[in-house]
Write a structure and sequence with these properties.
Length: about 350
């Protein structure tokens, strides 16, 4: 996707420059307001057309990559389920219809993949036009304009596209996993367990649902639940007792609980991003949920809980006035005012 974007850079610059030649008499800053506005409008129109083509190509790339991920996830799910249940089911190839259904019907935060691409496309158009305007205002030459365009205009779209790829490939994997389990192992499972990540980056919408088990036919949140969501479901099979065997379940193992430190990185082009580095990793019992882990941190490392929740939510959680679950509603985090803080 980044390659597609890089390739577009010269056509972006060419189109912006040819409009400048056509519409300006002198320097941009010396032109009357009306002519400047007309040029920027024309540039926006031209960028709309150009980026529409480019982002349509991105859509195809997401779909192809999604199809690959779906095959791999389906195959892996079949292997895992076979091992868990002692079966020898063969993985049946996920056909084009399944890929199309995923691509055309899956949503993240209520938007289809094409709608997300449209959003990123509009942001990219705005960024490119405003970068072009900055170059004209500053009277930059061709080379300096090209550099600025790479740093701000084109490079600025990379984090968004990277997030899109990550989020939607997760979506493809979930889709394939659920479809494979339901189609081939539906009779062997009793439900799905929601698994969030035990770390400081897990959001207040996902964290409290960690460990929650949904019945097989019960409505459950569709994953990914939000942009860059890392949650997953694992299929639940009947316990020994449910099968009539009087025996304890095998040890569920451990799961890692990770603490990060974060710092703001200032880039040379003036933009900033957040860099996370792993501070500590602790292996806790596999049965520990996010809620239980955070509760324990209140005793062991209150400063950590405070850094995750913020001061007010931390105090309410510590004093037992607020549960993690009550911090969000319908997929959004409640404002402090709504919490009665
Ligand atoms: Zn999540």
């Amino acid at each position: 996707m980044v390659e597609v974007l890089e390739k577009s850079r010269s056509s972006v610059l060419g189109k912006l420059a040819s409009l400048e030649d056509k519409m300006l008499k002198g320097e941009f800053v010396d032109e009357p307001q009306a002519r400047r506005a007309a040029l920027l409008r024309a540039q926006k129109g031209e960028m709309d057309r150009l980026l529409e083509e480019i982002y349509a190509e991105m859509g195809e790339k997401v779909k192809d990559a999604g199809a690959d991920v779906m095959q791999a996830a389906g195959k892996m799910t079949t292997a895992t389920m076979n091992t868990t249940l002692g079966l020898t089911t063969t993985f049946t190839h996920l056909d084009r219809a399944a890929v199309n259904a995923w691509f055309e019907m899956s949503t993240v935060d209520g938007l289809l993949v094409n709608e997300w691409l449209k959003k990123l496309e509009q942001t990219a158009v705005d960024r490119i036009v405003s970068t072009g305007r900055q170059a004209m205002v500053e009277g930059l030459g061709t080379q300096a304009t090209a550099r600025l365009m790479r740093q701000k205009g084109v490079q600025g779209s990379v984090p968004g596209l990277e997030g899109l790829a990550r989020t939607w490939l997760q979506s493809a994997a979930h889709y394939a996993k659920e479809k494979t389990v339901t189609d081939q192992f539906g009779d062997f499972i009793t439900g799905w367990e929601y698994v969030a990540t035990l770390d400081s980056r897990t959001c207040l919408i996902c964290g409290p649902d960690d460990g929650k088990v949904y019945e097989k036919d019960e409505q459950k949140p569709t994953l990914p639940r939000h942009w860059r969501c890392r949650c997953t479901y694992i299929p639940k099979s009947p316990t020994y007792r449910e099968l009539g065997v009087d025996m304890e379940e095998l040890n569920d193992g451990t799961r890692p609980a990770v603490k990060h430190s974060e710092r703001t990185v200032h880039h040379r082009d003036g933009s900033t991003s957040t860099a996370f580095s792993v501070e500590s990793v602790e292996h806790v019992s596999g049965k520990t949920t996010y809620q239980q882990w955070m509760k324990r941190q209140l005793e062991e490392d209150p400063a950590f809980v405070k850094s995750v929740l913020g001061k007010t939510r931390f105090e309410m959680f510590r004093d037992g006035r607020l549960t993690l679950k009550a911090m969000s509603t319908h997929g959004r985090i409640k404002r402090l005012a709504e919490l009665g803080a």
